[in-house]
Each structure stands twice: as structure tokens, then as C-alpha cells.
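can u pls check wat happens w/ coenzyme A
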Amino acid sequence: MNHDLEKVEFKVIPYGGKEWHEALILKENILRKPLGQIFSNEEKKQEEKHINVVGILNQQIIATALLVAEQSKCKMQRVTIAASLQNQGIGKNLLAYCEELISNQSFHLMYCHARDTAVNFYTQNGYQKEGDYFDEDGIPHLKMTKKIS
Ligand SMILES: CC(C)(COP(=O)(O)OP(=O)(O)OC[C@H]1O[C@@H](n2cnc3c(N)ncnc32)[C@H](O)[C@@H]1OP(=O)(O)O)[C@@H](O)C(=O)NCCC(=O)NCCS
């Protein structure tokens, strides 16, 4: 196992603090800047209502996910791993942490709108394709779901 992989600590952080701001920068750098976009104030404010998950390595935020509770299911959004640390298994561990977290809160289904480039990643982690590709932020996306026991 990769040495750094073992050292990544996943946790839920409160909205609006130093760690949340650091996480927002990572999300913006990975998800929005390549598209020439930034988060609107409304998009940032939405995060107050949801579960903010981060991964920390050497005191830096290197992974993020936002969990949105919807009755018995949960939508996972804004999944990012710092560019220099991708393809080392951190994303897999991030999903496992998020799934464990929601299973303890009695949610039975996790779903996401996966970018076409991330569909293989979610498939490898047990998510199933649902329906056809659709456009979101100018990128083809696919709904993907996983039953959580
Ligand atoms: C998509 C993303 C979250 C995946 O996170 P990650 O940490 O790179 O994911 P993992 O390392 O667990 O798995 C990615 C690949 O690396 C491979 N991998 C895992 N551990 C590895 C290792 N030690 N050595 C080499 N390859 C490895 C996996 O098999 C996987 O392959 P696949 O995607 O072709 O099936 C991340 O790449 C990312 O932030 N991408 C940009 C933003 C994005 O697209 N987010 C998703 C929006 S829906």
C-alpha cells in the first residue's frame, strides 16, 4: 500500500471555517477553473446545509466531497482529489468513508452525477450507471447509484 494513502485522515468539517475555505479552493481549482468558472456566492452558501467531507494529509486539505441528504438517499457532489495525488487510491477511500458515514445515518442509497471522465472510477467502486448521459456545466454526466447496506 502507498505510504501516503495510510496517512490521509477523512473527517466532516463545519461550514465557513478555515478548513472549509481551504476545501473550497481545492474544489474550485479542480472542478471549476479548468472550465473557466468559479463558484457563485449562492453555490458556496448551499454548502452550509450539507455534510462537508475532507481528506487531510500533512495538515493540508487534499480531498473533498459534499453529501446532500434527500430523504432515504444521499447525493454525493464536488468529489475532488488534489491533482498531484490522483490515481493512488485516495478517491476510493474517500468514497468508502462517505458510504460508511451515510450508512450510519440510515441512508440506503448513494448517487452522483458523474462526469464522463469519472464514470470508470465510480464503476470500479460499485456504482451502477442509470439512464443516459446529460449535460451539466457543459460536460456530459451520467447518474450513478450504489445501494448502501
Ligand atoms: C475522479 C477522482 C475523484 C478519482 O480520485 P482518485 O484518487 O484519482 O481515485 P483512485 O486513485 O481511487 O482511482 C482512480 C484510478 O486509479 C487507479 N489506482 C488506484 N490506486 C492506484 C495505485 N496505487 N497505483 C496506480 N493506480 C491506482 C484505480 O484503479 C483507478 O482506475 P480507473 O479510474 O481507471 O478505474 C479524481 O481523479 C479527481 O479529483 N478528478 C478530477 C475531478 C473529478 O472529475 N471529480 C469527479 C466529478 S464527478
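Residues 18-32 form the longest helix (15 residues).
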